[in-house]
Design brief:
The protein is mainly beta. It contains one helix and eleven strands. Strands 3, 5, 6, 8 and 9 form a five-stranded mixed sheet that branches. A four-stranded antiparallel sheet has the order 7-4-10-11, with no helix packed on it. A hairpin with a 2-residue loop joins β5 and β6.
Length: 141
């Protein structure tokens, strides 16, 4: 049978093991989020959600990201009907996801920080395309 001292010593050993990286200066999780991320000379929201109406449906989600620092990333989720699609943009430029046509109607576009990235990327706009034509242009402010 274990004594109280054995249980206490075991708990203390587990606590030391869990906190050792923090004591040694290791990074624990993502940096704390502030009100906005300064990227490429502009302030961008760290997160945001917009609902748009897309009367014709869409088959491509394009995320346009400003030039950014190495390692920057952002997640953009588009929810239409009963399905969602996620695009992870790592760095500046245009990032696209091609898919089967999504239904028309209300579409929720959510920009969220990528938790395993050291810094957030600045989304300039999210475009929803059908047959290579923009049917909705979403900008977060």
């Amino acid at each position: 049978m274990r004594s109280y001292a054995d249980v206490r010593a075991g708990a203390l050993a587990i606590l030391v093991a869990l906190t050792a990286p923090a004591v040694a200066g290791g990074r624990q999780g993502p940096p704390s989020a502030g009100p906005a991320t300064k990227v490429a000379g502009r302030n961008c929201p760290d997160a945001g959600r917009v609902v748009v109406s897309v009367p014709t449906g869409f088959d491509v989600v394009r995320v346009v990201v400003a030039d950014t620092l190495p390692g920057a990333a952002v997640d953009v989720t588009v929810m239409a009907g009963s399905a969602d699609r996620r695009v992870r943009a790592r760095g500046g430029g245009a990032w696209s996801l091609h898919m089967d046509a999504a239904p028309s109607g209300s579409v929720l576009v959510a920009v969220e920080p990528t938790l395993d990235a050291p810094i957030g990327a600045c989304v300039e706009r999210v475009e929803l395309l059908r047959d290579e034509r923009v049917v909705a242009d979403v900008r977060l402010r």
